[in-house]
């Protein structure tokens, strides 16, 4: 894990821990990677390779020493995973747990919660809940990005009305401090120990959309300032780091459409660096490189 950076950021208002991690795989998602002779920005990186990197980054998140300490406190039969469909299906939590040595965990829960966009307002539609595999009083591990927390707040309100776990661990591919604080308030009210792992940074949330999280937002807290500077050098301060994250795995044409729309909205002409320029910024083991 030599190429993995880990930092403990300032805690939530309830003093729950937040860790931010950056690895070649998470950097491929939040900044970019090298494919053959070309640097591919994260906003243009979609499909099966991105899904593979998300899974590997999830395994890395579970191997952080502070997270291993949490996992080691529980027998496998006291551990459940929760996947909010569809974005973080790519995290493949149950397989990731097995790969870090947690065999035959209690089970998996699946939640259908999605954003509904209309009339300038974004709300959550809570559509589906399968909790047969959810331990009522052990460790819950949840994978989902957190912007302002709409989907996770709906999820946690529903689940905490039924059960009270001993501890909750969030794996957040893209997260904001605003969203973490909102979600954390629900858990702290029930005095549930909670830990968050985010990738690359804690992002500031665009005040107009309450949805986009740009690298250039003044409230963004980067783990590695090089990542922030690299992204901003390509797009300026306003482009969202993730766009509609789920589309990058399951509908790349829609991801590309949203990317183009955001470029137009913000009057951005991308300045994509060459492979050689990127290699002057990052050491060989810091950026993911694949054959074309």
Structure at a glance:
With 292 residues, this protein is α/β, with parallel strands linked by helices. The protein has a single domain, classed as Rossmann fold (3-Layer(aba) Sandwich).
Describe the 3D structure:
The structure is a single chain. With about 290 residues, this protein is of the alpha/beta class. β3 (about 30-35) and β4 form a beta hairpin. It has helices at about 25-30, 50-65, 65-70, 95-100, 150-160, 175-190, 225-235, 245-250, 250-265, 275-280, and strands spanning about 5-10, 15-20, 30-35, 40, 80-85, 105-120, 120-130, 140-145, 165-170, 175, 195-200, 200-205, 220, 290. The model has no long low-confidence stretch (mean pLDDT about 90). About 35% of the residues lie in helices and about 25% in strands. It has one domain: Rossmann fold (3-Layer(aba) Sandwich).
CATH architecture: 3-Layer(aba) Sandwich
Number of domains: 1
Strand content: 25-35%
Number of DSSP strand runs: 14
Quaternary form:
single chain
Which structural class do you get from the secondary structure elements?
A: alpha/beta
**Helix coverage percent of residues?**
25-40%
CATH class: Alpha Beta
Report on the biggest sheet: 8 strands, mixed
Beginning-to-end CA distance, first to last residue: 25 Å
Radius of gyration: 18 Å
**Overall pLDDT metric:** 92
Order of helix and strand elements from N to C terminus = EEHEEHHEHEEEHEEHEEEHHHHE
Poorly predicted ranges (pLDDT <50, ≥5 residues)? none
Q: How many helices in DSSP terms? A: 10
Examine the coordinates and then state which fold CATH places here, giving the name of the CATH topology. Rossmann fold
Strand order of the largest sheet: 1-2-11-9-8-5-6-7
Cα shape: globular
